[in-house]
Amino acid sequence: MRILKKDGGIFSLAGLYDTWVDPEGKKISTCTIITTDPNSLMADIHNRMPVM
Asked: Disulfide-capable partner of 14 in 9, 31, 46, 51 (CB 3.0 to 4.6 Å)?
């Protein structure tokens, strides 16, 4: 699915990003998108949606 705003503009998603160092000294970058229950527009598509 590709979800767009009606006006074609951009939108932001809530997320977390971190870079940490493992025991061997290797840097590892991780990220995640925070999700929530879907609103009425997204409920027919999926049981979760990104927090905007």
From this structure: 51
